[in-house]
Every structure is written in structure tokens, then in C-alpha cells.
Write a structure and sequence with these properties.
By secondary structure, this protein is of the alpha+beta class. Helix content is about 20%, strand content about 35%. The chain has two helices and nine strands, in the order ααβββββββββ. Strands 5-4-7-2-9 form a five-stranded antiparallel beta sheet, with no helix packed on it. The protein has a four-stranded antiparallel beta sheet with strand order 1-8-3-6, with no helix packed on it. β4 and β5 form a beta hairpin. The N and C termini lie far apart (about 100 Å).
């Protein structure tokens, strides 16, 4: 008798052996994803370093993968910088002159130099994978070349 009832329920609900896919509403997916990303972001701690106009800092990425240095550049506010990033083997990775965009990528094991070329303080933020110190040498050496000079 119980077997007959189970067969009847299966027929009424049209249960099959096929796979059924479930797609949650986009709003649910986005809210779960956003909550997950916020929880990850909350666990990352940043150190802020203020670089005054004319100052240079050296940053070493102690991790084996590329990491980013975040900053607050703004051409309209006079917050610009020169930067050069080096790979672990010493080859140049990227170069920026009077740059106003964030972030700066630093290859794993690599080093970056950032010089504030603007008229206002530049704030950079790094995670604990970076060691940093001031540098006497600017990120880029600027040379003025006059007409008919090379």
C-alpha cells in the first residue's frame, strides 16, 4: 500500500530522474556576492603613507605575486606622481610620469619607486606584504633638453 502511494505522489509531482537546474534571482546572487566581497575587504588592513611634494619612497613587494599600491592622485587637485616598478630580476615593469591614476602594480619580489611631482600631498596605501622607506633618488631623473640639444 505504501509503495502505491509513493508512485502516486511521484506521478502527481512529475518527478523524473533528470537534473534540475536552479538559478537564484540576480538580486540574491548579487547581495550574497557583495556581502562576501565586503567580508574579504574588511579583513585586509592597509597602512597609509603620506608622500609630500618632492619626496620619494621605495616599496618592496615581499610576496611572490603581483600586488598593488593604492593612492589618491588627482590632476585637478595637483596630486601627481612619477613611478617606476621593477621586476624581481631588475628589469623595468612599468614607468609613469606625472601620473594621475591609481593603482600601481608591483610584480612579486619587485620594487617600486614613487616620487610626488604634484603640488599637494599624495597618500598611498599598502598591505603588509610591502616594506617601504624614503629614498634620496627620485623615481625618474628629469633632464631639460633645449632646442638643438640632444
Amino acid at each position: 500500500m505504501q509503495l502505491d502511494q509513493a508512485d502516486l505522489v511521484q506521478k502527481e509531482q512529475e518527478i523524473t530522474n533528470e537534473t534540475v537546474s536552479f538559478d537564484p534571482p540576480t538580486s540574491v546572487t548579487n547581495s550574497v556576492y557583495n556581502a562576501f566581497m565586503m567580508s574579504l575587504a574588511a579583513t585586509v588592513e592597509y597602512t597609509s603613507i603620506v608622500i609630500e611634494p618632492g619626496e620619494t619612497y621605495e616599496f618592496e613587494n615581499t610576496d611572490t605575486i603581483s600586488k598593488s599600491i593604492y593612492s589618491n592622485p588627482s590632476q585637478s587637485k595637483g596630486i601627481l606622481y612619477d613611478s617606476v616598478s621593477y621586476k624581481e630580476d631588475g628589469d623595468i615593469s612599468t614607468v609613469h610620469m606625472d601620473y594621475g591614476i591609481s593603482p600601481i602594480g608591483v610584480p612579486g619580489g619587485g620594487t617600486a619607486f614613487i616620487t610626488n611631482t604634484g603640488t599637494a600631498a599624495l597618500t598611498v596605501k599598502v598591505t603588509d606584504v610591502f616594506t617601504y622607506s624614503t629614498s634620496e633618488d627620485p623615481a625618474l631623473e628629469r633632464v631639460t633638453v633645449s632646442k638643438n640639444e640632444s
